[in-house]
Amino acid sequence: MAEREAAHVPSLSIIATKGTMDWAYPPFILASTAGALGWDVSVFFTFYGLELLKKDLHLEISPLGNPSMPMKMPFGPQWLKDINWNVPNAVMAGIPGFEKVATGLMRQTVKNKGVASIDELRSACLEADAKLYACQMTVDLFGYSQDEFIPEIAGWIGAASFLPQAQKSDVCLFI
Amino acid sequence: MSTNATQTLDARGMNCPLPILRTKKALTDLAKGETLAITATDPGSLKDMQAFCKQTGHELVSSSEHRGEFEFLIRKS
To answer: Does residue B2 sit within a domain?
Structure first.
């Protein structure tokens, strides 16, 4: 029994549905880490999640509709960095370019804290042989063409192909 | 940092999951029985390295903390 457990390679299936920078982290962190642990990993990117497979990543964050996002300065003296600029969502919505600024600040914060970039994590996933699947229906729906995406995509598949795979995995997450 | 390790990895300033990813990568270049010494500043690395070794079967020879830096010695299995 113990021997059989030791021989079993754990597997992880993730369904990635979000295309913003903040939501890009959980699937790529979990997939790359599972890969480092020697797990079999597959990720199915669907709807906005497909954005994470583009050759050129232009991921942004939006504090709109996300009142939990801390708004802190990544530069300046410590007292300034410690302030949480709690701008109400209703006010943010009216400021042009707010998302660009928030994205810039988030990028700087990620760099300051030694957190990997999405590009880096995606490469780590591929190095670990994680299978990254793209949802064919989403490609058609949003009018994408396949050459906008990285060539390492393991397959252009649909729900009917991914589900039987997810069924057999030890851990299955919807993100 | 133990100087008698086969190879060293400086993971200071890196945050989760980079220390683990870099460790895994560095281990692939080693032969069985060779050792890797890692220095990290991520407080999560203490538990992560234990879990990584337990899962992958490599031996965590030692782990220690000194002035906010964590040092690990892993023997490849």
So the answer is: no
